[in-house]
Design a protein that fits this description.
- There is one protein chain.
- The chain is mostly helical.
- The protein contains 8 helices and no strands.
- The protein has one domain.
């Protein structure tokens, strides 16, 4: 269960950060890409939905990181929710920052995250964990 959830989180995180980079680039901004942030995002919730189902939820909450994983998925789900205030790409940054924070504070297992991530996804996360890049939290407006 843990491995599957971590794999899905890592994949979603990678899709989010790539989409953030694309839509906030100068070419992306020039065509208004931030306004269509979710169109090609294609986040996965299959594993989450399976384990968070009413029948399996008790088993899910036996995980030591259940609260952290729940917070991450709540942030993922907010990205495409047009009823939420603000822009989807900013909600994407908030979701990415949540994953960053949970790995930095070690509420998520770094070794398992590395194991299930693609090499590109892990290299990007490793840069954060080793101080070679800032968390997405640094790019959020505190207001």
């Amino acid at each position: 269960m843990r491995e599957q959830l971590y794999r899905e989180i890592s994949g979603n995180y990678q899709r989010i950060v790539v989409q953030i980079a694309l839509v906030t680039s100068i070419p992306g901004m020039s065509i208004g890409a931030p306004l269509s942030f979710t169109k090609k995002l294609d986040l996965s919730f299959g594993v989450w939905n399976f384990y968070y189902d009413e029948k399996r939820r008790d088993k899910f909450f036996e995980l030591s990181e259940a609260e952290a994983i729940t917070r991450i998925y709540m942030k993922f789900s907010e990205i495409g929710n047009d009823d939420m205030p603000g822009y989807a790409h900013v909600r994407g940054k908030e979701a990415a920052a949540e994953v960053d924070d949970r790995l930095l504070d070690q509420n998520l297992d770094r070794k398992l995250y590395k194991k299930v991530s693609t090499s590109d996804a892990w290299r990007f996360m490793d840069d954060l964990l080793n101080g070679r890049r800032e968390s997405h939290r640094a790019f959020l407006n505190p207001l």
